[in-house]
């Protein structure tokens, strides 16, 4: 059994002691509790005048008493209000609740004045409006004793709806919902504009270095991670919060338009599942995944990964190289990661229809050296490297030419080619 105040405003009952409600009105919860929001809204509206059933002692007209006693069976007003409060969450739905409460309150007031005082529809609406808005105009007609009690109930219910609306809006603003919606809308617009971008799944110990390198290279990318703390650590990065193994999350990150995906989730099982999911959503996607256990590498390849990187193996090789050939390691670090200058090793793709498709390496080499001061080191053709290619070697579509030079000049060369 609940009091009227507890049923309508379970959260306010303990926080607003000054909000006085009739405590004699109680109800019993029956199978309607837990029903769908639509059912609650419907019954909430239909039963809006059930509160009048407590007024018969103050009424003179026996016919009205009988009519009110019949609608006593609809006394689920507060049950449905409670269900609405519990089941419909989120600011948009709360706005709908507030609007429904206002409409129901007006209906309650209009029907009440028509039944109790016998007023016309226009007089009843006018009285409800001036009562709820507290503008201070005089009553349309003199009120009977029952009418006064009814007006008190209307004012108390109106005050409750006002407090509920204010608390909903305040919670929406103060608890961070509004900034979060704006942020998501902004991210969605940015992702829609992206094309041929990269998706980094996992912003942990490995992923953060991938992100840093992509930022340095000026590449477009989206980060997917289910840890909101990492989102706050990367305020200027396009970030999708969610489980990267879910189709909907990858679609939100624009996987259908992406050119590559990096899987750096915490476990091999998650990365393996992510590879399978990503490959099914975009068969042309280039997928690079990390692998913590070497025995999992063949499974990753079979699942659809283009390249599998073992951090343990790469770390071990790097440590050994630092011991044996430190100068070479320092040189390669400078080339690949822009260590002390802007000299980089980059790749330039010969696209289908390029003016250098079918031309010799010598022609491209002269153009690159004379105009951009960029050196040609090798050509990667269908996964096979041709180091220091001979000048007469013909270039084919989708060949990747490995070049060395200043990063900006390498990018200009790629645009020219």
What does the model show?
- The chain has 417 residues and is α/β, with parallel strands linked by helices.
- The chain folds into three domains: 2-175, Helix Hairpins (Orthogonal Bundle); 192-314, 3-Layer(aba) Sandwich (Rossmann fold), CATH 3.40.50.720; 342-416, Alpha-Beta Plaits, CATH 3.30.70.
- 51% of the residues lie in helices and 13% in strands.
- It contains 17 helices and twelve strands.
- The protein has helices spanning 4-8, 37-46, 62-70, 77-87, 91-116, 121-133, 145-174, 177-193, 207-217, 228-233, 247-252, 268-281, 297-303, 311-324, 326-337, 361-372, 407-416, and strands at residues 2-3, 26-27, 198-201, 221-225, 239-241, 260-263, 286-290, 307-309, 343-349, 375-381, 384-387, 400-406.
- The strands form three sheets. Strands 5-4-3-6-7-8 form a six-stranded parallel β-sheet, with helices on both faces. Strands 9-12-10-11 form a four-stranded antiparallel β-sheet. A two-stranded antiparallel sheet has the order 1-2.
- β3 (198-201), α9 (207-217) and β4 (221-225) form a beta-alpha-beta unit.
- α14 (311-324) packs across α15.
- The N and C termini lie far apart (79 Å).
């Amino acid at each position: 059994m609940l009091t009227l105040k507890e049923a309508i405003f379970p959260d306010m009952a303990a926080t607003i002691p000054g909000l006085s409600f009739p405590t004699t009105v109680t109800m019993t919860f029956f199978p309607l509790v837990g029903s769908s929001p639509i059912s609650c809204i419907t019954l909430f509206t239909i039963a809006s005048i059930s509160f009048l059933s407590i007024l018969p002692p103050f009424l003179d007209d026996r016919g009205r008493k009988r009519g009110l006693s019949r609608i006593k069976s609809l006394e689920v007003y507060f049950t449905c209000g409670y269900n609405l409060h519990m089941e419909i969450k989120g600011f948009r739905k709360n706005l709908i609740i507030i609007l429904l409460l206002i409409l129901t309150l007006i209906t309650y007031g209009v029907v009440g004045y028509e039944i109790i005082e016998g007023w016309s529809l226009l007089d009843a609406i006018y009285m409800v409006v001036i009562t709820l808005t507290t503008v201070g105009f005089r009553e349309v007609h003199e009120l009977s004793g029952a009418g006064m009690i009814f007006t008190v109930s209307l004012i108390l219910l109106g005050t409750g709806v006002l407090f509920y609306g204010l608390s909903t809006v305040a919670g929406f603003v103060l608890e961070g919902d509004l900034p979060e919606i704006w942020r998501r809308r902004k991210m969605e617009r940015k992702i829609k504009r992206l094309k041929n971008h990269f998706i980094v799944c996992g912003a942990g110990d490995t992923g953060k270095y991938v992100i840093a390198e992509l930022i340095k290279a000026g590449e477009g990318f989206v980060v997917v991670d289910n840890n909101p703390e990492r989102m706050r650590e990367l305020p200027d990065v396009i970030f999708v919060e969610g489980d990267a193994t879910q189709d909907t999350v990858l679609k939100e990150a624009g996987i259908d338009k992406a050119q590559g995906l990096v899987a750096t989730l915490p476990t091999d099982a998650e990365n393996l599942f992510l590879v399978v999911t990503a490959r099914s959503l975009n068969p042309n996607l280039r997928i690079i995944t990390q692998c913590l256990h070497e025995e999992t590498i063949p499974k990753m390849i079979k699942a659809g990964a283009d390249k599998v990187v073992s951090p343990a193996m790469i770390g071990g090789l790097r440590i050994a190289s630092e011991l044996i050939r430190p100068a070479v390691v320092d040189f390669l670090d400078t080339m690949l990661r822009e260590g002390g200058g802007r000299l980089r090793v980059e790749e330039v793709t010969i696209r289908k229809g390029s003016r250098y498709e079918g031309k010799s390496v010598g022609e491209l080499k002269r153009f690159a050296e004379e105009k951009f001061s960029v050196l040609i080191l090798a050509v990667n053709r269908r996964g096979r490297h041709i180091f220091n290619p001979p000048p007469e070697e013909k270039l084919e579509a989708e060949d990747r030419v490995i070049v060395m030079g200043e990063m900006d000049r390498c990018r200009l060369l790629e645009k020219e080619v």
